[in-house]
Amino acid sequence: MYAPGVVKKIMVANDAGLIRFLFSAAGLVFFLILELTISYRQTTVSKLKRWINNISLALFNSLILWLFFTGAMLQTAIYVQEKQLGILNLIHVPYWAKIIATVVFSDFMLYV
């Protein structure tokens, strides 16, 4: 079972993702309502068709970027591991100390 601190961190991480999603959805709804009430110019294409095209294009771009960067990160990690690059490969400490240092540094970078 998880320790109480770990569960709290998992819940905070999930809450942060939920908060980001809610802010994005609220911004989208806000600008859609703003466009309906105060149009910048006359529409030549129906708003629904334009919204569907734009939102689907944004989702497609997000998917492509997610796939690209995930693949790039995995390839970089594999390359670094095979070539024994990085500061933790240069110093001789036990494996468990490297794991702790990695977790602490990753947590710090998320905090920053």
How would you describe the overall organization of this protein?
This protein has 112 residues and is mostly helical. It folds into 2 domains: 1-42; 60-112, no CATH class. It contains 4 helices and no strands. The chain has helices spanning 4-37, 47-83, 87-90, 95-111. The longest helix is centred in the middle third of the chain and has 37 residues, at 47-83. The model has no long low-confidence stretch (mean pLDDT 84).
> How many strands appear in the DSSP assignment?
0
- The domain tally reads 2
Q: Return the average pLDDT rounded to an integer.
A: 84
Biggest β-sheet strands, sense, barrel: none
Apparent shape:
elongated
What string gives the helices and strands in order? HHHH
Name the structural class: mainly alpha
Cα-atom radius of gyration: 22 Å
**Alpha plus pi helix count:** 4
Helix content: over 70%
For the terminal residues, how far apart are their CA atoms? 29 Å
Strand content: under 5%
Enumerate the spans where pLDDT stays under 50 for 5 or more consecutive residues.
none
